[in-house]
Structure formats: C-alpha cells, structure tokens
Design goal:
By secondary structure, this protein is α/β, with parallel strands linked by helices. It is globular, with a radius of gyration of 30 Å.
Length: about 950
C-alpha cells in the first residue's frame, strides 16, 4: 500500500470501493441505468441503491429479493441416483428435493479411490445429466396410459385407465400364447448395465411367456465382430483410469471428448503424464485438437491404414516374437491346397493322446518336429478350462514352409504357417498403396507405427467410427493386430479398449437369473429379425440371400417366429419396447415402417417421454423417470456399482418398469384364470407355459424357491447383488448390499468368468491377464488369439486373414457424390435429450447437416440454408451448417433426431439402407460352434450405418 493511500479504517464510507458482493448487489440498478442510455461506469458506484456490507458474515442484512439464490442451496432431502441412458458414463448424482419437487442435481463426487497414483475418479457427469431435472416435469413426459386412436405415428391418443390398458394387453397376449404364437411376441430393450432391474422387468415376463428377447449391441452397430472372431470374447476393456498408465495412446475413431465426457479427464491428464496421444479421425474432431498428432484417413479405409502400420512393424522386426509364438495362431500350419488349418488327425502318429485330434492344430518346433498345439479346442473342455494351458515346452518356428505326409490316401500336404500367410497379405500395404487408399502420408503412418511398437505400454481406444461400416469385422481385426504384434495385451496401460455402448454388465449372474428365470431363452439377432420381417431379404443380392438361408437351415442363426412343421413361418404379431427407441434407431427404417410395422398387431411402448417409438405404438404406458425408482448402474468404463433411488414419487400415474410388468403379469394371471385357459407345451423347451401362475412365477425367487420375494424393485436389486460373483464373491465373507451403494459407490470385489482378468486391489482393471499372464487358453477354436479363420465362407470371400475391402455402396457415386455419416453427438445420448430445450439451445435447435465449405459453394448453399439431403431411399429436409473441419465429400448428420423433428417425418436413418454381412452369420467350428455361436450381443450380424451415399441440394433451388 502506498503512503498516499488511506487505510481501510481511515476511509470514508463514500470512498469505499465496493467488494464483489456489493458490486453484484448493485448490478440490477446499474443495469436499469444502462438501459436508459444515460448511465456511465462511474455512476455505478454512486447509485442510491448500492449498499456495501462491511461484515457479510457476522452482520448481513436480510433482503428478500436474494431468497431465490439462497433457496438454491436449501432442500428437504437428497437422494442418490443416475441417468439410465445408453451411454457408458454410469455417473452417480445427488438429487436435491424441495417441496416434493426435484430442485437441482449435482455430481456426487464420492467414488472411493483405489490408486493414489491415478487421477481422482471424481467427479463423473456431463451436461446432459446436469439437466435431467427438466425431464422430470417435461411437457413430453407421459403421465397416463394412452391408446392410439389415429394412424400409427399420427399422434392421436385417448387417455385410458391402467386397468383398461393392462386388460387389453393381457387379452391379446393370452390369445397369442393359446394359439401357439408365443414366439410371435418380442421384447426389445437395450443395455442391461445401465439399469439391470428395469431391463429384467420386461425380459422376465417375456421369458415366462415363451416370447423372444432381442439383441441390441449388434443391432446398434456397437458390437465389434472382430473381437469374438479373434479373441473369442464379446468385448473386454480396461477401465478408463488405465489410460493414465499408457505411454502411447491412439484414439482410433473414438471421439472421447464428445462421447466419453466423464472419462475424458484420463485421456487429457495422460498428456501431462508424458503419454503421447495420436488421433485417427476423418474430421478434425473435438478430440483431435487435444492430440499430439492427427491422422485423417478417408472414410472406410481404416483397415488399410492399420494394415500398412502392421506391415511396417513386421518389416522392421518391431514385433514381439515371444508373444506371437505363445499367444497367437501365427505358428500354426495351414494347408496350401485347401486353406484349412492342418489338423493332428491328418498327420499319422500325431495327436494320439488328445481327445479329438480333428480339432487339434499343428505347429513345428525349431528342430523340425511337428508338435500338437497345446489347448486347442479338441484338447480341452469349455471356454475357460483352467486345467489346460497354452504355455509351450518347446520353441515353435514361425516360418515353417514344407510338406507333411498325410498317409497313403492324402500323400504329401503342402503347409506353411499363418505368419508367412500374414506376411504375404501385409506385403500389399506398401506406403504408396496406403497413401493412395487412405490419404495418410507415407512417412507419417510408418513413423506412428514405429513409435507405437517401441513404446513400453501402448494402447488403442477403439471407437464406433470403425464399427459402422459393412466390413467392420475386417477393421476390428486389423486394429487388434497392432496390439497383438507388439505384445500390448495383458499388462497395465496396454490393450485395445472398445467402448461403444454399455455392452457388459458386471453383475451378470444375478442379472441373468432375474431376467430369464426359466433358463430357456429365445434370443434373436435383431438385425436378422428386422432384415427378414421387413422384406429386405427378398430384395438383396442372390449370394447374400443364399447364405442367409443356409445359416437358417443349418441352425447357425435363430429366427423367430420359428418355421412350423408345414414349412410356413408366421409373422411377428406383438412387440414390447422399453428403455429404448427401436423405431428411431432402425437402419432401413423406410422398410421397417412400410413392411415390418404393419405386421405387428400390437406395439406396446413403456416410456417416460413421447419419442418416435411411442408415437408409432398402439398403447403407451407411463414409466417412472430415473429419479423415481430403485435400480443399479454400472459400466465397463469403471469398476463401481451405484444405485438409483427414488427422490420423488412417480409423476402422474407413472409406475416403475418393474411395477408395470409385475402388474401386467398379475392381470394376465387374473384373466387367464377367469377364462380357464390350460397350460401350453413349449415347442422348443421342456416346459409348459402356464398363464394361470405367471404372476406367482414373476414375483417368486426361483433360486431360493421363496414365494413373493421379488414383489418390489429394491428386492430385485438385492437379488442381483446377492447372486453375482462381482458383488458377493464365493471365497469371501464380504458382500455389497444395496444400502452400501446408497452410502457411496462401491468398487466391485471380483470378476466372474465373463471377464478376462481379476479386479486387483490398487490397480485399474485391465483385461486379458488370464490368458497372457496365467496362460489359460483363449476361448477360440485354436485356444490362441486367432487371426486366421478357416471357415469355408471366409475362405471363399478371401477374408481368412484381416484384409482391406472398400465401402459397399448401392447408391451411384456420380449421382450421389457425398459420403453420409451419422456419428454420435455432443448434445444428446442417442435420442435422449434430443428434445431437451437446454440442449437445443446449445446448438441450432433443429436437425442439421454439416458440410465442407467447398461442397457448399459447389451447390450454392450458405450456412443456415434449408437443404434437402437425398438418395434413392428418401429425402430429408434439414438446415445446413458449415463445417470446415470436415473432409470434402462428406455429409455429416449427428444422429438420433426424432422423426417428429423433421418436416416430412422421415429422419436421419431414412437415408440408410439395411445391409447384413454374411460372414457374421456363421457358426465356427461349423459342426459344433464352440468359438462362434449365436448368443445375444456376443455374436451375430451387426447393423451398418456408413456405407451410404447422398447428395444435398438447396431447398427451393433450381432442382426443386
């Protein structure tokens, strides 16, 4: 302080420079003065209304106008909840209630830390969750049961009572079951991890009815088929905290800062920890700007880029030879005449001690002797046979090329290793080819490959961008090859982490027993079911149609309703949808609306808001919001479980999902008894479908054989926690209860067999340790990471090894020159929050197409113009937005806008045809299917979004 300045005590009140608090108190008056046009900055501190409080803590005067701000920090109760949407966030929130209304919400911030060397896991959340309060009392909230009175999608409804709604549904269901059409009843709901009790509510009833449960992970294009192909596992990932342990990270098509907001801190903080971060994105995305380097391959060419990088690693001897010999199929011998693996049964005198030598593979040791590959399928029992081991007691040769005597009948068989076959394939991807195909510089991709291979701990974060293409399985396998070649598996900070949807639920055993009490499940791949019943199969190419039929005939893929004894196959008649938006997310949705939907006699949607599926339903039942129910939440992005608890009563006549399906079961039982219906023998399973006891069966704990034990949602939560290894380990007295999760999120205590590592104290979860460190066999045909698939269809299509194939496009490239892309957006999670006023204010409030400025100039389009995006299938009217960060030749529409948000009621998926790749319909081995077999969300045909072309014209232009 200078000598000329008086001390505080010496100052006159009129000379005091106001504090920040005092400044804000005068702001309203100052603003009023400013509005007159005669106020000045100097006037601000001389206004009569401005009063400075000397002692704001000890002597603060009451001013009633400040109560609004005080009340924000005043509440009657606080509840813990979360947001049950199809994202991987699983974020715990505190919900504040005053006068029976949700007042606000905030991130809970009390996840317990398990490793002080990693960034704090707290807090978790995003801008969507921060405004979920608005949904609780939103105009689009469904408060009463509704019955359609107009055409589907017309939006004409009448309010009915719960009893009327349940009675109508019950009558229909009873008629279907009694007529033997129980397999015409479908239940569609996605992602159990986000709210397993709500998932189980309808699945449990559908299971008791003998109905069909639909897959979702493959249907949404989220399933990476390359993982079950290569690793024999649906997916497994490190929790996001492990990103911080990596020395080198490639974010490949995963726009972390947009779609993984609660976890982005680990990616950003890793940079401060010295981790190099590389982005592979077609556009200069919100994540690309935070990477050290950015590669931008042409859309649909990721496979070529990855294989070019693999070629560099192999050519320059940067691969992990020990890992390849022990952990992969690279040393296995392949017949050159048939393309099939050489089996022990084909070599006289080899494999005499194994159980099934026809399913045991062969390699050569460095002395030239043929050896049985340990833990091949024919020498072990089951996927996780811990009595078997892939550990070698000899040194295999990666470069064997020879003939093998196959006995008198077969003569000499020419064979060579998978490794040599792979090198032949990789030789195609020289730097010039990679540049021509992808646009990525010759030196750039080779340098990145070298850096990745030379890093101590390298990791790929794999996003949905690769999955959306028809040849997504090839893309997955090529990316996986990079971590396999470099031995970046089974250690902290390594791996290929694929986070697309909450595909896996930690507490799987309890959830499965709750969802499917009979143990007999009619599961169906939704892509195939939709493809068939929407009439798309009838219009596809001859080869694809023949392969689909062969898969059905051989039982590789199931299709419901089942074919009857007379060769007929009935149409589906009934569909329950809850916790999802099937109609809005349907690829080929023109065919869905015009061909599939008219076949359904009854569509019931259980929903808290009026979305596109609800608009096209016959009966809509109001369900509780996320702040009005008991449930659990978990994700593979972290290793915690936390709860939903009801902060307020369900709005209007809403009920929780569990209550709704429980009461429907009660109504079915009541009406069935009144009608005197008899049990129906299930055609497929050894059980009777007895509708007169279906409510009793619904609320019974089948494991404890306790009647009425599962009446309430919270009891169902306790059931899941009690019967899951992750929350109640068999070798420990510790158990996580629901009350524990309410106290604070609980880190899970163990990992069941559907995970590939244990949860370790003080370590972030990292997969594949059971195979890499403990030497358990991989759950594949060969017992190893399997890059060579010798199934006949793969051999026929030249896909036995990862190879690059360009995008498939039915639309003419000259007529439709723009690639059409529908990535996940920042302002919604799928269609949830697409109708949120707060989120709409952060963008332009309506559907947009993002175009490169030069593409706009060519078409005479300016930013903000109304345009028509069109191809052979549909025309969609949207607003154009200039996007200089895009590649030229791309029309990008962030997906999930509801149908009713478009003038013509088409939507982003109306432009997307429905593709289905035949190689995703196989069983492998063909006769027994231990490696690849249909199981919902593990293996099955995926939806395809990106092999689409369009053009854009200005609305009202010369073309109109």
């Amino acid at each position: 302080m200078s000598k000329q300045e008086p001390t505080h005590d010496e100052r006159d009140e009129s000379d005091v420079t106001p504090s920040r608090r005092g400044f804000l108190k005068g702001l309203g008056a100052a603003t009023a003065a400013g509005l007159t046009g005669i106020g000045s900055a100097d006037d601000l501190f001389q206004m009569e209304g401005l009063q400075v409080v000397d002692d704001p803590i000890g002597n603060y005067p009451y001013r009633d106008w400040e109560d609004l701000y005080r009340e924000e920090w005043d509440w009657d109760s606080v509840s813990r909840s979360t947001h049950s949407v199809n994202c991987t966030g699983s974020c715990s929130w505190n919900v504040y209630v005053k006068n029976g209304q949700v007042w606000r919400e905030e991130q809970s911030g009390d996840y317990p830390r398990f490793d002080e060397d990693l960034p704090d896991p707290n807090p978790r959340g995003c801008q969507k969750g921060a405004c979920y309060t608005d949904y609780v009392n939103a105009d689009q909230r469904i408060k009463h049961p509704l019955k359609r009175v107009g055409e589907r999608g017309e939006g004409k409804w009448k309010r009915i009572t719960w009893d009327e709604a349940l009675a109508e549904i019950a009558d229909h269901v009873i008629d279907e079951v009694q007529a033997g059409r129980y397999d015409c009843i479908s239940g569609f709901t996605p992602i159990p991890a986000m709210s397993p009790i709500s998932f189980a509510s309808g699945s449990r009833l559908v299971n008791l009815l003998g109905g069909v449960s639909h897959s979702f992970y493959d249907w949404y294009s989220d399933l990476p088929p390359g993982q079950p192909l290569t690793w024999g596992v649906q997916t497994d990932n490190a929790e996001s905290a492990d990103w911080y342990n990596a020395d080198y990270i490639i974010a490949w098509g995963s726009n972390i800062n947009v779609t993984r907001i609660p976890d982005a801190k680990y990616f950003l903080d890793a940079g401060y920890n010295g981790t190099k971060r590389v982005g592979v994105f077609t556009d200069y995305s919100q994540t690309a700007i935070h990477t050290d380097e950015w590669m931008s391959p042409e859309g649909g060419t990721d496979t070529a880029l990855a294989l070019g990088m693999a070629r560099t690693i192999v050519k320059e001897d940067l691969y992990d030879e020990a890992h390849l010999k022990e952990q992969t199929d690279m040393p296995l011998l392949v017949r050159e005449d048939t393309g099939k693996f050489l089996r022990a049964s084909e070599v006289p005198g080899l494999g005499e001690d194994v159980e099934d030598p026809g399913k045991v593979f062969v390699m050569q040791d460095e002395s030239g002797n043929l050896q049985v590959a340990p833990a091949s399928l024919g020498d072990r029992d089951g996927e996780y046979d811990k009595s078997a081991s892939i550990e070698l007691d000899f040194e295999p040769d990666l470069t064997t090329e020879r003939t093998v005597g196959g006995g008198e009948a077969d003569g000499e068989i020419p064979v060579r290793t998978v490794w040599l076959n792979l090198q032949d394939e990789l030789a195609k991807y020289d730097p010039q080819y990679v540049y021509n195909e992808t646009g990525v510089g010759e030196d750039t991709h080779q340098r990145i490959a070298r850096e990745f291979a030379e890093a101590e701990r390298a990791k790929i974060i794999h996003g949905k961008g690769v999955n959306d293409w028809y040849h997504n399985d090839l893309g997955n396998r090529a990316l996986q090859l990079l971590v396999t070649l470099t031995g970046n598996l089974g250690r902290q900070g390594t791996g290929l982490d694929h986070y697309v949807g909450q595909e896996k639920i930690w507490t799987i055993h309890g959830w499965k027993k709750l969802s499917f009490p009979t143990g007999n499940v009619r599961g169906v791949p939704t892509t195939l079911w939709t493809y068939y019943h929407a009439g798309i199969m009838e219009n596809t190419d001859e080869d694809t149609r023949a392969k689909i039929q062969e898969s059905l005939d051989k039982g590789w893929m199931p299709l419901y309703p089942e074919e009857r004894d007379d060769g007929s196959r009935p149409d589906p008649t009934t569909m329950f949808v809850w916790r999802g938006n099937y109609f809005n997310q349907s690829k080929g949705n023109v065919a869905v609306e015009e061909q599939l939907w008219p076949k359904l006699d009854l569509v019931v949607d259980i929903n808290f808001r009026m979305d596109s599926t609800a608009m096209n339903a016959d009966i809509v039942l109001p369900t509780a919001s996320h702040y009005e129910k008991h449930d659990l939440s978990m994700t593979d992005m972290h290793t915690y479980v936390h709860p939903f608890t009801p902060a307020v009563e369900p709005l209007g006549e809403s009920k929780t999902d569990w209550q709704i399906f429980r009461e429907l079961a009660a109504k079915i039982q009541e009406v069935a008894r009144d009608r005197g219906v008899e049990p129906v023998q299930d055609r497929k399973f050894d059980r009777e479908i007895d509708l007169t006891t279906i409510y009793d069966d619904y609320v019974r704990d089948w494991l404890a054989d306790e009647e009425g034990a599962l009446e309430e949602d919270r009891a169902a939560c306790e059931f899941v926690l009690e019967h899951s290894e992750e929350s109640n380990p068999h070798d420990s007295d510790e158990q996580i209860t629901f009350a524990d999760t309410v106290e604070q999120p609980q880190r899970l205590k163990a990992a069941g067999d559907h995970w590939t590592s244990d949860i370790e104290e003080g370590e972030a979860y990292t997969p594949w340790k059971r195979f890499v460190q403990d030497k358990e066999p991989w759950p594949t045909f060969t017992g190893r990471q399997q890059y060579y698939i010798d199934h006949d269809w793969f051999l026929e299509l030249g896909e036995q090894l990862p190879t690059h194939k360009g995008p498939v496009a039915e639309q003419d490239r000259e007529e439709y020159p723009l690639k059409y892309n529908t990535p996940h957006g920042r302002w919604s999670i799928h269609s949830t929050w697409r109708d949120s006023e707060k989120m709409l204010r952060l963008q332009r409030g309506e559907p947009l197409v993002y175009l490169h400025p030069e593409d706009m100039d060519e078409r005479g389009i300016e930013d903000g113009d109304t345009v028509v995006v069109h191809n052979d299938l549909a025309e969609v009217e949207v607003q154009a937005k200039e996007y200089p960060s895009s590649q030229r030749g791309t029309a990008r529409m962030y997906f999930a806008w509801e149908q009713f948000q478009f003038p013509d009621r088409d939507n982003f998926n109306s432009l997307v045809p429905m593709y289905m790749k035949p190689t995703q319909l196989v069983q492998y081995p063909e006769d027994s299917g231990e490696h690849l077999y249909f199981f919902p969300n593990y293996w099955g045909p995926t939806g395809v979004n990106s092999d689409v072309r369009v053009d854009v014209r200005k609305k009202g232009g010369d073309d109109e």
